Amino acid sequence: MDGEAEKRGVGAPDEGTGPHPMSGGRTAGEESALMSPRISTVLFDLDGTLLHVDVEGFFPDYFGRLADWLKPYLTPDEFTPRLMASTARMVADRDPARTNAEVFLAAFFDGLDLTPETLLPVFDAFYREEFPKLARHARPAPGAREVVSKVLESGRRAVIATSPVFPRAAILERLRWAGLDDLPFALITSYENMHFCKPHREYYAEIVARLGCEPGECLMVGNDVEEDLAAQDAGIRVLLVGPNIIHRGRRPSTPDYEGTLDDLLFILDGVVPPRSAGT
Question: Which among 36, 93, 134, 279 counts the fewest CB atoms within 10 Å?
Answer without folding.
Answer: 279
